[in-house]
């Protein structure tokens, strides 16, 4: 519920049917009305024919709430839909952030307004804002007057509500909102319904996948990098990052290479039993590339690089009469063993034939000596090539000579027909690629708890090969592992891939989420085995919540929820909350328990001054939340457990220095809309100082504290003495029950329940379960875990 402070208090307001006039103060600089100026915009608004807003409840004997809702929809709602300043919808549409909302349905608008107390007999209600003479407070906003008939129709609805309550009807704020029984017809939720992993869950996942605590040199690296991961230790850090941050990704840059390298090296975790040393690229199918010596694809030069004076084309090849070089570019599909072939014939060589040297890039492969002068012959040599890709293949005549032992007149030359490269030998097939992809699939299954798709296997294999060309193969495998640590399926509580899967594969990923949500870790092999052996999801929920790890993880989450400082005292509220959840106790006892949970998790009695006040009078809850005259404690109670948000506009902040407790509950005060609850509750806590120490008497006056609400606000709903009186009535309120349901929903879903929108059916189920199970939080969490939203059987 949003409580908005409204400016302006002079003029007339209605309290319980009585019109109270608040005169203009000419000495007050904040009261600028000039009675001598007929055009003063601060003058009160006084209708020529005031509406009759009196209430005779006897006219509405035995009236039913649904009748009132129908009357409102017929008689008042149409006026609210008027456009511009004549209506309400321009400022009070559901997306405007106002407490009072004009929705797309008249009855829905009524029920929401009734729950918000807008038909009560107190300041700030619907009728009061329509009839007040204060231009600043009057609605519509520009101070325009609603027609008399419309105002009287709104007053009749308020009177009908008063009559209904006088018949002993359940207060509107203590029942399930009737309007939520209608089907939701608003826009569909568009946010991505998944929560990013927290540091505890990341630790649990790394331990489960890698069997690695990430302790290096005796230091826990998660603790060393806790700031990057947005974690808490309740020693130096107390606030958790709730979304993915750039710092978290920097933390992954430290984590992923370390744990992956160690796993690859030791063949542990996801690499247990995997081969990270065997070549992963297959040999390409063998091909023959032939280059004609006289052809245009061959570059011919002399030994010094000159392009003339060394030979000429002579069919069927090229005649070199001095040392020459023939080279060409060649592309090899893969590494492997290749055959190098030169077809040539000796010319005038005598007994010592011409030598032809074969090179690949700068590497000499072999040197052939040709002696046959009658015909061209092929000479072949096999050699390994380390890398695929572009290379330069060259053949060179290297021993031109006209000196003895050649016979006089001989001139040793060579005729080269062509040269070839054939290979790779044994090429063809995909055995190595298939084996590598199988290992990639194993990594997916072990790290992401699902098989890789065909496309994912192809993409990961491409990455592996690319990395293999840049670094040793074991480092390439580590790189693939690092990519999976950064994969969304690793970093969200439910793998996004779950939305593309069905059957057992999807249920496995949902079980991973359940383990992370309830235990802070993925399931063990034994727990997965339970699922595959036929255990239902409900059975797995029960098994997880029966685990000691559930208590540990839940306690950590409640320490965050209650803002623990990490001490035994500040942990006390979280211990009570955890005790109630783990033991299936009514969550109402969070505010009404007359016992405490000691640091050893024993149930201990409390001094009688606590009464049945649960965490409300615990030191660990009170400390850091000041009471009078600051009202911080009261604001936190209503915010944390009653779903209210208090806004403090500048005009209110400016008056805080001079406001008193009495002035804040003056119905004509600008402070009243908030302090009609804050001030009485602050008085009910007076016996407890800001350190949570009980005081029977005021140390300044030695008089007994009056820790009742003191009747400061006649409409205050939590009247009585002390915090027990507040608690006993607060736990009946729909807002408190909803707040408790939200706390369990956030634990499992990472977000608030959309209780008044598309998840109103689930809210009703949880509401009914609250009373049938007597507030058993385990039962409520189980229901959430079995809901369509958690099971992702509705579009995420």
N- to C-terminal distance? 27 Å
Strand runs, count: 19
Number of helices: 29
Rg result: 42 Å
Shape: elongated
Low-confidence stretches: 1-28
Helix content: 25-40%
Residue-averaged pLDDT:
89
Query: Helix/strand-derived class?
Result: alpha+beta
Strand content: 5-15%
Q: For the report, how would you describe the main beta sheet?
A: 6 strands, antiparallel
Give the SSE layout:
Layout: E1 2-3, E2 11-15, E3 18-22, H1 65-75, H2 77-80, H3 89-92, H4 106-115, H5 126-131, H6 148-166, H7 199-210, E4 215-216, E5 219-220, H8 221-224, H9 246-266, E6 287-292, E7 299-302, E8 311-314, E9 317-320, E10 324-332, E11 336-347, E12 355-360, E13 363-369, E14 377-385, E15 389-397, E16 413-423, H10 431-448, H11 454-468, H12 473-485, H13 488-491, H14 503-519, H15 525-532, H16 537-545, H17 548-561, H18 572-582, H19 589-592, E17 595-597, E18 603-605, H20 619-622, H21 632-642, E19 645-646, H22 650-653, H23 661-664, H24 672-684, H25 722-730, H26 734-749, H27 760-772, H28 777-785, H29 788-791
Parallel strand pairs: 1-19
Antiparallel strand pairs: 2-3, 4-5, 6-16, 7-10, 8-9, 9-16, 10-15, 11-14, 11-16, 12-13, 12-15, 17-18
Helix pairs in contact: 1-4, 1-6, 9-12, 10-11, 10-12, 11-12, 14-16, 17-18, 21-24, 26-28, 27-28
